[in-house]
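Hi R.,

As promised, here are both runs. First protein below:
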Amino acid sequence: MDLDYYAILGIAKSARPDDIKKAYLQLARDNHPDRIRDPAQKAEADRRFQLITEAYNQLRDEKARREYDRTLDRKVRTPEEEARLFYKNGELQEQSREYTNALKYYYEAMRLQPEKLEYMLAAARILSLDKGKQRQAAELYEQAMAKHPASPEPCLELGGLYMRSGMHLRAKRVYEAAIRQFPNHDDLKRKLAEAAAAEKKSPARGR
């Protein structure tokens, strides 16, 4: 897996040794597998912890770090490969709940491939976590819907955002429009039923 050790630790390439150690200790504490009991989540935590440790071991040694930096400088990637790398690093940051960093990486991926659905949905997902940015998230979902009319995913995500925000009528309208395009989609049918039921209970909201 071609990952950026600096991105894994959430630090800049110019970070000082103290910054590297501080970032590692924080991430190691937050992602230590011993804190998790669920087997599936523990396996994912093991993977993250190994990556964090690998990154730290590479960057804490001055000689190894210089060689790694030279390796980074020598690599020539296509825009698609670069975008994928940004996206993967964004996933790592999101898994570590470093949402601000994750959004930066997702935006970089979108800068290189602005119409790729996977990157648009990832950025919108992070934006939707912040109440002050939910309008931006909705706009990004709408852009994804317009650019990818053959995919129901943006419709499901936008409807879910409206549902979580208590805007049940808006969610209902999104699902209704989507079902006209995807009449046999079971998830959309179920979500529409949920939105309709919620809208009946609170008819004054979400208009």
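And here is the second one, sequence first, then its structure tokens:
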Amino acid sequence: MPLSTETWPIAAALLSFPAIDRYGVEAQTAAPEAWMSAFRQVVRAGFDNVDLIDTWVRIGDLSPDRLRAFIDTAHESGLSAPAVSLIRRSVIHAQHGEQNLAYSHRSIDAAAAIGAQVVSVGLHQELTAQQREQLWFWTVDGHHDDPSDSDAWNAAVTRLRELGEHANEVGVLLSLEMYEDTYLGTADSAVRLVEEIGQPSVGLNPDTGNLLRLHRPIEDWRSLLESTLPYTNYWHMKNYQRDEDRARDQYVSTPSTMEGGVINYREAIQIAIDCGFQGVLCCEQYGGDGLSMSATNQRYLRSILPETEDYELGTSRRTQVTDLARHR
């Protein structure tokens, strides 16, 4: 049955919560009381669901007892955890590719153990020293995957297919996050990668905001979504205000609410529904009180999602997969 504004799962990303807090306490090794404090803030902001992003706690590196305590704490606070996101863990990293692959496998097992529906991974790599010095890291170029390197491309296909097979075996989806200058950096490349992987459990996370914010020419967001949403099984959502002076080759962006940015999410949601998308949505935000801004964005999303379940889905090749995951 199609989802509606009341039943559609919308998760909060935990970007506002650091791996080490201002008292020097590491979230990975913290007591459950510290986790509860964070989860309660998410609940008070108005969320029922959370994306367990590994920039806060790496569930793939928790012992079985700690993993159970972690998810029990989330449930006790009133949260479900339908999604897990692994950040900057490229499986084709020149030095850490094998290590990142093993970590991704552990995280898929952990996600299945806690009942998550989807694990999001990407090919973006750690920030450079120059990027870390900026107010907004995306204003400086980071790592580039080489589009002419067929060996690297084939390694990405092979290793992500391996992760997809594992995800399918344990009953979760694998979603590939779009990110600039990687093999997931354009609509055509991302679609080609999913097609070559050829696993029904593997789809796209069309994080269009990652591309919209760049201070350079970009793909049209409508065209990008029309190409990628038929392959989408998870969706990180954020928006940016953007100004372009092409004659002077000047481009600037700044984070905004989903309602106030360049991407018209009312239209984007309709494109997704027409494609048959029925996956988890995740509100992300950089800068300021990102959790409160994400809560504002959730309210906006609820106002534009279908009011009832009485509508016709499109014919996306991912519709069946996302629907099955939702009913695990």
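A quick note on the second one: The chain has one domain: 10-326. Let me know what you think.

Best,
J.
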